[in-house]
Description:
Layout: E1 2-4, E2 9-11, E3 26-29, H1 37-49, E4 53-57, H2 76-86, E5 87-88, E6 93-100, E7 103-110, E8 119-120, E9 124-130, E10 133-140, E11 146-149, E12 152-155, H3 158-186, E13 192-195, E14 205-210, H4 212-216, E15 226-229, E16 236-239, E17 243-244, E18 249-251, H5 261-275, H6 288-297, E19 314-317, E20 322-325, H7 327-339, H8 341-350
Parallel strand pairs: 3-4
Antiparallel strand pairs: 1-2, 4-7, 5-8, 6-7, 9-10, 11-12, 13-14, 14-18, 15-16, 17-18, 19-20
Amino acid sequence: MLTSKLLNIEYDASTLRVKSRETATREFKQIYDKKEAADYLRAMAAMANSEGGDIIFGVTDSPRTIVGIEEAMPDAANFGSSVTQHFDPFIDFEIDEETIKSKRVGIIRVRESKQKPVICKKVRTMKRIKGKKEIDETVLEEAAIYYRYGPKSSKIHFNDLERLLKNRQENELKSILQNFEIMQKIGFQNVGIVDARTSEIGSDVSSLYVSEETAKNLNLIKKGQLVEDKSAGSPAYYIVGEVELKKGIEVAIPDSDRVFPDEAKTKLAPTFKRHFPEVFTGNKNLTNAQLKHIACSLKLRDKKNDGKHNTQYCCYDAKTRRFFYRNAFLKLIENKIKTSKADMEKWLQEA
């Protein structure tokens, strides 16, 4: 038996039979069909409200065997727009694929939501054939909350919803107490409040709310993001990026400097294939998991999407809950391929 690190499944190397079963955190699909998108969204919401999970495409049901997919997996940015239209809060996910014996296997990896419950915003129906008739079946219902019960995605039961709401209330209270303790330590007169969300829909601006007295002591410089500087002993932070001094508003990274994982993988794949032909044989291509492992090994990003990153190279958007690389990261990787080829090859093999 072999184990796919990306897909997290066990399979037989000769027959491609899959030993792993469907569970609350794993669901198999034979093909990716955009007409079935509502089903995928429902499963994603249920996983986000539970413990997260994977929807794996290119595996037959009975017997469970890797057959691969011919169709392209969706673009993460476009698919993310559909997710946003149907659910709130946003579902944190990644789209990736792996080639196993010339067979492409796709995956949508969903992370457990930190703001449960994720709620459906609008109705979505699908055409189904029942008997000899074609009917419109409701797959997503407005105000519905979906949850994983074994390998199925269903409306949440009362006891589970009660538990989710209780946990959220406890976490909010814990956060309030922790912030209050911080305010006591640094003095209420020195405290400001940062709204981690953007101030308007479609805007890339966050607001810093401070009293007039606190504002007098703020030193903001233009051009940049919040970056940690350890050169002066204890860690300090400075702001790099456009800063608009109205009520302490910082303009976030422009869209032109946001390279989402799928796009970064596509842009860098030809370079990797050219320099590492022994790794990328046949139809094998660079995966998001390999790129992530390289970035983590270079200490440019945290293993968690919303973790602590070197914001010169990669960032996490708190509003959309999406991770992205920056153009500087692409340039750095292309340079590292030339200057640190042995390390890069090792990291590719490890991922």
